[in-house]
Amino acid sequence: MPEPSAAAPSAATRARLAERIDALLPQTQCRRCGYADCRGYAEAIAAGSAEIDRCPPGGAEGIARLARLTGRALRPLAAECGREEARALAVIDESGCIGCTLCIKACPVDCIVG
């Protein structure tokens, strides 16, 4: 569980913090943290209902950034969320594209525009 705080922050303060947290997350929308998207995870961290150790794509570096921003203790990546791996990069050869949209359907994080 997140560390208890002396006083609960206001909704506006939580919203601003969620924006800053979301900006630090990798935006892969992988759902390995247990939330529907990075924004949902950011809001949960800001509300104090989620730990900062649940983002495998962000890895140890991401956890360190979240710890600095939130003032929470540095923690190892939560094992139940997976493990840190090198980030994959898909390259679409536009000159060979026939418009079949198979790549869009196959992308697990909806990051292909077209």
Structure description:
The chain contains 4 helices and no strands. The protein has 114 residues and is an all-alpha fold. Helix 1 packs across helix 2. The longest helix is centred in the N-terminal third of the chain and has 14 residues.
Descriptive key words:
single chain, 114 residues, mainly alpha, 3-methyladenine DNA Glycosylase II, Chain A, domain 3, 0% strand
Summarize the structure.
The chain has 114 residues and is mainly α.
Number of helices: 4
Structural class by helix and strand composition:
mainly alpha
| Second rung of CATH, namely the architecture of one domain | Orthogonal Bundle
Report the mean per-residue pLDDT as an integer. Answer: 89
Set out the fold topology.
Elements: H1 11-24, H2 38-47, H3 59-70, H4 102-106
Helix pairs in contact: 1-2, 1-3
